[in-house]
From TrEMBL, chain A:
InterPro entries per record: CbtA_put
Transmembrane segments: 67-90, 102-122, 137-155, 160-176, 196-219
Entries under Pfam families matching the protein: CbtA (PF09490)
Protein name: CbtA family protein
Transmembrane recorded as keyword: yes
Keyword set, alphabetical order: Membrane, Transmembrane, Transmembrane helix
Automatic annotation (TrEMBL), chain B:
TM segment ranges: 12-31
InterPro entries assigned to the protein according to its UniProt record, in alphabetical order: CbtB_put (IPR012667)
Pfam family, one: CbtB
Record protein name field: CbtB-domain containing protein
Taxonomic source organism: Sulfitobacter aestuariivivens
Swiss-Prot/TrEMBL keywords: Membrane, Transmembrane, Transmembrane helix
Amino acid sequence: MMSRVIISALFAGALAGLIAGVLQLVFVQPVLLHAELYESGELVHFGAQAVSAHPELPGFEPVRDGLSLIFTMLTYTGYALLMIAAISIAEERGAHVDGRTGLLWGIAGFVAFHLAPGFTLAPEVPGVAAADVTARQIWWFATAGSAAVAMWLIGFGQGWTAWGVATILLLAPHIIGAPEPDTFTGPVPTEIGALFAARALGVGLAAWVLLGCFAGYFWRSEGAREARTT
Amino acid sequence: MNTQTNTLKLSVARFIPAVFAAVLGVTVISITGHVQAAALHDAAHDVRHATGFPCH
């Protein structure tokens, strides 16, 4: 059982993370590099001269982008471990999870770990003003955790009590509010910030849906392998 | 009594892999996404922004 959990999480996480990493390098990284030109002061928004919206951006950087790829794979392996843990408990309780139903797990994971925290703490482009990082991290973990519990209650809860609690858990962090900066100091044009947030959430959805399908698939195949060998 | 204890042990044993995986998962996410040590922060900088983690 232990090896089934670990192996299926490693396979699903590494594969989804690899695809997520490539998608991020293609769609998110150019926007991030563009923003960094404003963060460093190389370009100035609303300065003396109008600035081209299409500056020369740095290309592929093997060390920097290679590290990004590795860390994306690690991050999604972490997510996969959490998802497989939840899948194994769900199956103990009678649920059936495979590659197809994994789609729903992926969407639920995206809501819990990307959409819920990002709804109030939007994905930040470099250079934006933000509150103290520790306070934001505490809010992030509390929001992702309560949204994860909420998604479980929506999926497996019986009746309106469970769904009511899920609704409260989903809404409360946003009604309470996330730590916000005292003043706005971001030098990056809003066009870049908006595109960055949209791209980050879009790649996140694609990656999580794939993670859910892979997790369901490898959970089944590792289970079948375990049944053959024992 | 004995049967009850055995059933309890069995159900606890079944959840150990799940708990272990969940703890490991949170640890991995904390290290890649949240620990502020300079070397880790620099290496994971782009990923933290792209994944929507609070970064700076």
